[in-house]
Design goal:
This protein has about 90 residues and is α+β, with helices and mostly antiparallel strands. The chain has a three-stranded antiparallel sheet, with helices on one face. The longest helix has 17 residues. The protein contains two helices and three strands, in the order H-E-H-E-E. It has one domain. It is about 30% helix and about 20% strand.
Length: about 90
Amino acid sequence: MTAIHAHDALIGFMRTSHARGLRFVLVITGKGGHRRDPDDAGFIPEGAGVLRHAVPRWLRETPMRPLVTGVYNAHLRHGGEGALYIQLSKRR
C-alpha cells in the first residue's frame, strides 16, 4: 500500500477494532525496502520503511489518539521490527 492508502486503512481498522471492544491489535508495517511509491515521497527518505516510520506518528494524531493507550514493538514471531502491538482504550 502507499502511505495514503495505508493511513486510511489504519484509521478504519483502529475504529472497527475499538468498536468491537478489542484491547490489543497487531499492525504489520513491514521493515521497508528500496522500492518507494512517488506518493510516499513526503513521508520519509528513500530506503527507510515508510509505514514503519509513519504508523507510530499517525497513532499519536487525531482521530486515533483517543483510541490508543500504548504502542509496542512486536515479538520476533509476530513480525519483529516490521510489526507493532497496539493497545486500545476501553470502550465507553
